[in-house]
Amino acid sequence: MAKLPILEFPDERLRTKAAPVETVDDEVRQLVDDMLETMYDARGIGLAATQIDVHRRVVVMDVSDDNSQPLVLINPRYTPIGDEKELLSEGCLSIPEHYAEVPRYLKVQLNALDRNGETYELEAEGLLAHCIQHEYDHLEGVLFVDYLSPLKRDRIRKKMQKRHKQMQDA
């Protein structure tokens, strides 16, 4: 397994729409393993392949307190269950140290392939439902800052650009 570099906003590669996975093979399973290691190392609860500059529809997540329930979503699709939304503070491994409240559906029905290419469904609510929607957005080239006002989004962009400059100068 390998820890992979995570792209950071405002990197334009984060705006790439991911392509479907045609076949779940050893290469995809290795990608899943590397993504899980990367996510856990970065202390995240979700990671989309787009964030590591692999533009395929693969997501890993684990919203458990002890990292004991990894979930693999290959070619995920979700449908809202009802119209009710809630605000939850979101962060992102691609936008470190920045958080904002984003409205997401309270409950969703997920359809995806697992690590072995088997189809599965699950009904999610709360943090898991938020995480599914957040990571799905990544596969569509959407970031949580896109839900913010242009002023807030621009402020975060400038702070991230300053952060990248400081890291390069160090």
From TrEMBL:
Signal peptide: none annotated. Fe cation binds at residues 92, 134, 138. Removes the formyl group from the N-terminal Met of newly synthesized proteins. Requires at least a dipeptide for an efficient rate of reaction. N-terminal L-methionine is a prerequisite for activity but the enzyme has broad specificity at other positions. InterPro entries: Peptide_deformylase (IPR023635), Peptide_deformylase_sf (IPR036821). It is an enzyme of class 3 (hydrolase). Its cofactor is Fe(2+). Its EC number is 3.5.1.88. The gene is def. Gene3D superfamilies: Peptide deformylase (3.90.45.10). Pfam families: Pep_deformylase. This is Peptide deformylase. The active site is at 135. One of its GO terms (molecular function) is metal ion binding. Belongs to the polypeptide deformylase family. It comes from the Bacteria. GO terms for biological process: translation. It catalyses: N-terminal N-formyl-L-methionyl-[peptide] + H2O = N-terminal L-methionyl-[peptide] + formate. Keywords: Hydrolase, Iron, Metal-binding, Protein biosynthesis. PANTHER family: PEPTIDE DEFORMYLASE. Binds 1 Fe(2+) ion.
